[in-house]
Amino acid sequence: MREFGIRPNRDLGQNFLVDSNILDVIGRAAELTEDDVVLEVGGGLGVLSEYLAERTKHVHVVELDRGLQPALESALDPHPNTTLHMGDAVKLDLTTLDPPPTKVVANLPYGVAATVIIQTIELESVQLWVAMVQKEVGQRFAAAASTPAYGVPSVLAQLACDVKVIRKVPRGVFHPVPNVDSVLVGLKRHSPAPPQSLKTLVQHGFAHRRKALARSLALAPNPPEHIRDRTREALEALGHPADARAESLSPAQWRALWEKLCL
Ligand SMILES: C[S@@+](CC[C@H](N)C(=O)[O-])C[C@H]1O[C@@H](n2cnc3c(N)ncnc32)[C@H](O)[C@@H]1O
């Protein structure tokens, strides 16, 4: 950082890894092999990028901050199996990455971590994610139905993946030390990404968490005709109370509801 005159930008979630032990923890969790093509969102100074490049076939590194570009290019320069993509990971078209990524391994910027995970589930080539995220974000993705952390990210991720919080990450592995706790979260794909209409159903269902699901869907913009009654009937047919709330349905039960309402 001194060499390149870099001052970390907290608004961009710049907490850089400074403990080499954590790299091995990430590497083991990601089960890295020489056949892997990795997508790393948030290259930073390239510490994790270099570790990944030494162990895999190819690494796509995405970084938003142009101020980090010289340092990152200098770290990646000795690794011809890397491609640097400067830009916002949320806006870049990641479907055109060549070769297509098989894994996402990253110390994700806090602000966009959940969005990046949800968006990359759309990349059918990706089979596994190991990501450092804020503790609450990790818990939200891994949460079971009827628990406080369960919500849209839990359902959307678990419709496609097995999700688990792998372990807590000590604050001291980052510089600067963040003022929130982090965890390593792991996702393993078991199914294709859910279709858009299922994702929309889940989002509208959770939009009014304290109301009955049938009511919440009826409050969505331009609701389908008779959606409240149809949802109540479908819920009962699936063995739920007609006034069940969004949080009481498991991901599999959301899919079953969608099949009844939308197919
Ligand atoms: C937590 S740091 C991780 C840096 C590095 N991988 C490490 O582990 O030391 C997150 C990085 O993501 C970058 N970043 C923030 N928002 C981004 C976005 N929307 N798209 C791509 N990169 C982003 C930040 O500039 C920062 O370098």
From TrEMBL:
It is found in: Cytoplasm. Its EC number is 2.1.1.182. Belongs to the class I-like SAM-binding methyltransferase superfamily. rRNA adenine N(6)-methyltransferase family. RsmA subfamily. Keywords: Cytoplasm, Methyltransferase, RNA-binding, rRNA processing, S-adenosyl-L-methionine, Transferase. GO terms for molecular function: 16S rRNA (adenine(1518)-N(6)/adenine(1519)-N(6))-dimethyltransferase activity; RNA binding. One of its GO terms (cellular component) is cytosol. The keyword Membrane does not apply. This is Ribosomal RNA small subunit methyltransferase A. It comes from Solirubrobacter ginsenosidimutans. Residues 22-191 form the Ribosomal RNA adenine methylase transferase N-terminal domain. S-adenosyl-L-methionine binds at N15, L17, G42, E63, D88, N107.
